Amino acid sequence: MQTKTHVRVAKFAATAIALTLLFSSLLLAQQTITATLSGAVSDSSGAVLSGAKVTLTAPERGFSRIFTTNSTGEYVFSLLSAGTYTLQVEVNGFKTYRQDGIVLAAGQSARQPITLNPGAVAEEVTVTTQAPLLNVDNANISSDITARQVVELPLTCAMFLDWRL
């Protein structure tokens, strides 16, 4: 009788441990679902431009965020969902900078330095290349996992309830 009780307790403990590991790994996989875009705005001589209006948009999703650069010319857009964005920078006395097609993936931290050229307010510089996918801040790699992929994960010990002590 005492052996059957030990077996039941062992099966229950094994089940609890397996479920805890499964759910904790799912929670860890979901922690980096956002991206970050940052950079510095400077003029052609390398001097930083504080107070620049930096606008990040994703028109297909109706997304728009505005940031004003700080005293070191830095801007940071964090908690961005994965997608394609347009970056625009405006400062009085400089040509407007615009970059289309910036692709950000989940967990990515991209840096986009911007150099503005002096010019009239009506002039606009449009850059149509993509930002490099090289992440120089860290070596994190992440991707989205669907519920179907989690269900289809192979289990080496799928029959843990049949374990015998």
Beta-strand segment tally:
9
Shape: elongated
**Mean pLDDT score:** 79
Percent helix, as a range, is: 10-25%
Which quaternary structure do these chains form? single chain
**The named CATH superfamily of the largest domain:** Carboxypeptidase-like, regulatory domain
| Residue share in β-strands | 25-35%
How many domains?
2
Task: Report, as a whole number of angstroms, the end-to-end distance.
Answer: 15 Å
Largest sheet, order of strands side by side?
A: 3-2-5-6-9
Number of helices: 2
Low-confidence runs: none
And the CATH topology of the largest domain?
Immunoglobulin-like
Per CATH, which architecture of the largest domain?
Sandwich
Gyration radius from CA atoms, angstroms = 25 Å
Order of helices and strands: HEEEEEEEEEH
Structural class: alpha/beta
Characterise the protein shown here.
The chain has 165 residues and is an alpha/beta fold. It has 2 domains: 2-31 and 145-162; 36-127, Carboxypeptidase-like, regulatory domain (Immunoglobulin-like), CATH 2.60.40.1120. It is built from 2 helices and 9 strands, in the order αβββββββββα. It has helices spanning 2-29, 147-151; strands at residues 35-43, 53-58, 63-68, 74-80, 83-90, 96-104, 109-111, 114-116, 124-127. The chain has a 5-stranded mixed β-sheet, with no helix packed on it. It is elongated, with a radius of gyration of 25 Å. It starts with a helix and ends in a 14-residue tail after the last helix. The model has no long low-confidence stretch (mean pLDDT 79).
